[in-house]
Design goal:
heterodimer; A: mainly alpha; B: alpha/beta; Rossmann fold; 12 helices; globular
Chain lengths: ~170, ~270
């Protein structure tokens, strides 16, 4: 028999899986992080991807095989959905603990050092074309040598950084 | 079947060099340097072999139409007049062309933001771009004048065009002679609304000053052509020092884009 929590997960899962969304959307959503990992520093060739989607029967919202354009547009939507969900999750207030309802032997989990944030990729620092000037890579690498982070800077942080650049004329 | 196909397998042959087309709209008052920024984006994309459709709605100061004459290959699309109906028609036509050619679209209304306001009332520009397979990009350009910034603030707050990729370009070229960038922009950056805009997704970047910009414009050259030493309307190329200035300026801009991690946003 299904446990209550599994049942709840299933119900919540089906709620999240809106029928208005295509199979393609759900597949991309389910594999969001894997796709980003697979893409790595490269851009995605959506024509080739669409061919693969066609082979395995992933369809768009109208039930037709996905084209490069619909695949790309759907991926963009998925990225926004994931970003929004994660932003909402990050801003969710922590659950209030009620000590009297905790088991007698409960103890706080040991805090762990946060994993170091991945280095900001310099993938886009490559020149646009042979005769187009490339960014100043050594300066960029030096600047990115500090503690990088995936966290989006706040408005105040962006303003402060801009103010510093204007002051030092470092741009 | 969803779970049966791994993303790695699916994407393994599909990682290439394709880049999404962008629908970039320059907003803000006229004569704030927006056309220069858009010109640089056009040249940058074309240098990488990416197609760009250009729409120039600024009939009174048609910088882009001068650089990319209408009717020529890769030339701008222009409205019949600056009537609202014609301007909206220009936008629709240009967008359709970009979609048909799987090209990016760069639109410069040169302060004619009423078109965007009107269009935005009828359609959600962000959703429309996404639905058509283009990644929307807003380009708000300002100098240190408070009026320029207030105009942007008002546009941003109207909600007409607020995509996830939105740039607030502070144009150093508009700083009056003798003033430092810090001094010129101090009052603007100190306003609480400035940080608030950043919080809401409008990313501030600085467009450095190009000392010989007037020479480039007087010669009727795009920034890329000036850098490459092409002959302008005076029959001679820019001298090597000015060519070097343009190249350095473009390099500085590339560094700004890379530092601010907005390269992916550009056409």
């Amino acid at each position: 028999m299904e446990t209550d929590s599994k049942h709840l997960d299933r119900v919540l899962g089906s709620l999240r899986r809106s029928e208005k969304r295509s199979a393609l959307f759900h597949w991309l959503l389910d594999h969001h992080d894997e796709i980003l990992d697979a893409a790595g520093a490269e851009r995605i060739n959506w024509r080739a991807v669409a061919e693969r989607f066609k082979e395995v029967g992933l369809t768009d919202a109208t039930g037709k095989p996905a084209t490069a354009r619909t695949a790309r547009a759907t991926w963009y939507k998925v990225r926004r959905v994931v970003a929004t969900r994660r932003a909402n999750l990050a801003s969710t207030r922590p659950v209030k603990l009620t000590p009297s309802k905790l088991p007698r032997d409960a103890s706080p989990a040991l805090a762990r050092e946060p994993a170091p944030a991945p280095a900001v990729p310099l993938r886009d620092a490559a020149p646009v074309a042979g005769d187009w000037p490339a960014p100043n890579l050594p300066a960029l690498q030096q600047k990115q040598g500090g503690p990088p982070g995936e966290r989006k800077p706040t408005g105040a942080e962006m303003t402060e950084r801009l103010r510093e650049r204007l002051r030092t004329r470092n741009y | 079947m969803d779970g049966a196909v791994s993303a790695e397998t699916m994407m393994s042959t599909a990682i290439g060099v394709e880049k999404w087309p962008v629908m970039g709209i320059r907003l803000g008052r006229g004569r704030t340097g927006g056309s220069t920024f858009v010109d640089m984006l056009i040249q940058r994309a074309r240098a990488a072999g990416r197609k760009v459709v250009i729409a120039d709605g600024d009939l009174r100061n048609s910088t882009l139409s001068g650089l990319y004459p209408p009717g020529t290959a890769g030339g701008t699309l222009q409205p019949q007049s600056d009537d609202l109906v014609d301007m909206k028609d220009l936008f629709t036509t240009a967008l359709a062309k970009a979609v048909a050619e799987t090209a990016s679209l760069l639109v410069d209304f040169g302060g004619g933001d009423r078109v965007m306001v009107e269009y935005g009332r009828e359609l959600s520009l962000v959703e429309m771009a996404e639905g058509l397979g283009l990644v929307p990009l807003a380009i708000y350009v300002t100098g240190p004048e408070m009026d320029d910034f207030d105009h942007i603030l008002s546009l941003w707050r109207s909600g007409v065009f607020r995509p996830a990729h939105s740039l607030l370009v502070l144009n150093e070229h508009l700083i009056p002679n003798g003033r430092s960038p810090e001094g010129a922009f101090r009052s603007l950056v100190a306003r609480p609304e400035f940080s608030q805009l950043g919080e809401e997704g409008l990313k501030p970047i600085i467009m450095p000053r190009l000392p010989c910009m007037s020479d480039v414009r007087d010669a009727g050259l795009s920034v890329a052509d000036a850098m490459k030493g092409k002959v302008g309307n005076k029959g001679v190329p820019l001298d090597p020092v000015r060519q070097f200035m343009v190249k350095t300026w473009l390099k500085r801009l590339e560094t700004v884009f890379a530092e601010e991690q907005v390269l992916e946003w550009l056409p």
